[in-house]
Amino acid sequence: MDILFVSNLFPDETEPWRGLDNVTLLHALHSLDASLNIRVLAFRPSISSFGRAAMQPRAMDLCFSPEFFWTPYLPKVGGFNHRLFGIALSKAIASLPQDFHPEAILAPWLFPDACAVSLQAAKMHIPVVAVAQGSDAHQYLDMSMRRKAILAMSNRVRAIVTRSRDLQNRLISKGSPQGAVQTIYNGVDVHTFRPISRAVAREALDLPANDHLLLFVGNFLPVKGLDLLLQSAALVMTQSSRTVRLALIGGGPLESHLRSQVEALGISNNVLFLGRHGSSEVARWMQAADAVCLTSHNEGVPNVVLESLSSGRVPLCTDVGGIAEIVEPILGRRFLVQSRDADAYATAILDVLKNPPEPADLHAAMQAFSWENCARQYMNLLSKSATL
To answer: Residues with Cβ < 8 Å from 346, sequence gap 6 or more?
Structure first.
């Protein structure tokens, strides 16, 4: 079976973290069925550039023959960006080998990516499976022109996969056909993200054995609500009888602001800005941590929640998006913070530091979310789409 993957969310050597969930899914699909012929067209938005992009794929992704292209992106007329993406896509498709005949297209990110793909695929009579990942449904459905494009796309594609039921319900409530939308949760690498002794993990990272360690993993963006995390961590640092450290893995446009806030709160000596790390390094930091913290304003089901649970560590989250869909059946609502209140979040941190759940129980609960199981669901959907 030939499958074409089209999205801006695919990694390259300079941004190896970009779209990691998508490329991991492709590798899981290939592991499930080595006869699959998967090719990737990856796009990067640009105000001025057009045509091929000079990005180089990661060595491990060469099996998908990824090609990179610029697509025009105009912020002030954002509602038309799927039309511009479509122009770039038509040129990119012309670069595919003549013996490659996609039987289905997988298109993560609804706008402009899947909207453009669905228009082009309709001309080629190829079924499309679109994937909603988060902000493309949370934010864009509240923007009239983008909502109109997304709803029109909903009637052209064979299916829309959402990575949480919350996103599924949101799409349907805005007008997407109910039968076209289904939830498939992301997978987690249960072999890399597994519990080990905190002492062993901390020794490997050269961290004090007896301190408390809180961890954040993600992009430094406004939607992540990191101001609340820093305020809450500062409160915990004054209330705990042991030294409390906060490690931040990631990067983004708010980094300088966050560093300034850390200075203003007087907690610079206890906050570690670690930059971006690969999966094995993230797993080691999770194994060393007492809790993984998310204070987002909205989310789908972020990978970090799955990885935290699989590592045997509590994901301490604001109760937004689809997070409760995963956390509540395993931990109840004890570690789901209802308000954006620093005292409430700090109280939840102190609770998990004093009374952590059994790591092996959390890891066992995540076996159903392995990437193999996730890939099997996508394979069934892609195969069914191709034969209808």
So the answer is: 232, 233, 235, 236, 239
DSSP string of 35-73?
Answer: T-EEEEEEEEEESS--EE------GGGGGG--EEEEEE-
Q: Let me know if 286 is exposed, middle or buried by CB neighbors in 10 A (0-12, 13-18, 19+).
A: buried
Phi then psi dihedrals of residue 85, to 5 deg: -60, -40
Q: Which tens digits make up the pLDDT trace of 83-94?
A: 999 999 999 999
H or E stretch covering 227: helix 226-239
Whether 326 and 309 have beta carbons less than 8 Å apart is answered as: yes
Buried b (16+ CB within 10 A) or exposed e, 77-107: eebebbebbbebbeebbeebeeeeebbbbbb
Per-residue pLDDT reduced to its tens digit, 303-336: 999 999 999 999 999 999 899 999 999 999 999 9
**Cis peptide before 112, with omega less than 30 degrees from 0?**
yes
Residues 6+ apart with CB under 8 A from 23: 10, 11, 61, 64
Distance (Å, rounded) from C-alpha 329 to C-alpha 241? Answer: 32
**Rounded CA separation 27/57 (Å):** 14
Q: Which strands make up the sheet holding 244-251, listed edge to edge?
A: 271-275, 244-251, 212-219, 291-294, 314-318, 336-337
Beta strand 37-46 with 67-72 is parallel
Query: What six digits make up the tokens of 186?
Result: 């992301």
**Rounded Cα–Cα distance for residues 341 and 372 (Å):** 38
